[in-house]
Amino acid sequence: MTIGKLCGTFLGKSRVLTNAGKLNPANLRLDTNCLECMSNGTYDLMQMGVSRSDARMLLRYGSKNEIIEGLKIYDQAGTRKQFLEALRAETSAELQAQRELWGRELNLGKEKLVYNKEACEQDIMTITSKWRAEKNFKNGQLKCKELPEEVKMTAEDLAAKEIVDRGFAQLPRMKHDMMQYRGEVISASDPWAKKVSSLKEGEIFEMPGYAWTTDSKKYAFGNYSGDGALDFIKTMNRMSIKYHVLCPEGTKIMASRSRMGQEFVMPCDSKMRLVKKVVDKENNTIELFCEHIPDKSLNHRG
């Protein structure tokens, strides 16, 4: 369990600490995909003897009331000092890791993401599949003289796509950075697999169609990138692709619904800058660390 899950688990950590009598810094790794927004609770925490800088640090991880109650439990165990020291060290290490990977410290926070009912009622998956097929055909990546009728965009598909795009245009832009994750397993001969394999760090590329993402790394990689099925991936000549997507301030991302977990949809043909690529040839796995480039043309159109 990570310190980034403090929302809902802050008290649980406090009780573990009370029983154990000491901190285990290894359990305090910051997982930035679940950060809560800064609460206006700095003054209240300072009244408990917490420094301003520590108060701001704590408010990255949970609501004011959760933190206050948790600190009281740490105080009862006599371990507040050790807890704050460990948290400072872990936070400092994570911020340094952010600077090294992304070139800056991330301004992560909880956003009120919007579910656009009209847009999400469209068959976005089918639209994406056809849209990608047509792009691959036009780019000469499909070995056929003519695209089959069943995968061509129809007038109805285009009308539905317009509704989805209008839904994105109506979304507010995010005010904070947010991490999103995506996993997929595809044939190693797929045009997209070849594209991903050839990408160079610093290169700008498009994610074709509407890409589904989630703010849970475990959910994305555990359910969609083939974790735990590497033998199958190699035997069937598949490629596992894991995406770590930094959505910066100004991004438009649509909340979606899933039977398995919280998912989101990114705008059609979202542009990404590849920051880092990690290739594991032995296990047919590629990890992409990329930063989304907000589409400035997606202005509110009413």
The average pLDDT score comes to 84
**Cα end-to-end separation:** 43 Å
**Strand content bin:** 15-25%
Order of helices and strands: HHHHHHHHEHEEHHEEEEE
Number of E strands:
8
Biggest sheet layout: 5 strands, mixed
The number of helices is 11
Low-confidence stretches: 1-39
Helix content: 40-55%
Rounded Rg: 22 Å
Label the structural class: alpha+beta
The largest sheet has its strands arranged as 1-4-8-7-2
Overall geometric form: globular
Describe this structure in words.
Helices cover 40% and strands 17% of the residues. By secondary structure, the protein is of the alpha+beta class. A hairpin with a 4-residue loop joins strand 7 and strand 8. The protein is globular, with a radius of gyration of 22 Å. The two termini are 43 Å apart. Mean pLDDT is 84; it is low at 1-39.
State the main characteristics:
single chain, 302 residues, alpha+beta, three-stranded antiparallel β-sheet, 8 strands, disordered N terminus
Write the layout of secondary structure elements.
Blueprint: H1 6-20, H2 42-46, H3 52-58, H4 64-77, H5 80-102, H6 117-120, H7 124-138, H8 155-170, E1 178-187, H9 191-198, E2 204-207, E3 212-213, H10 217-224, H11 230-235, E4 238-247, E5 254-255, E6 264-265, E7 270-280, E8 285-293
Parallel strand pairs: 4-8
Antiparallel strand pairs: 1-4, 2-7, 3-6, 5-6, 7-8
Nutshell version of this structure?
This protein is α+β, with helices and mostly antiparallel strands. The chain contains 11 helices and 8 strands. Helices cover 40% and strands 17% of the residues.
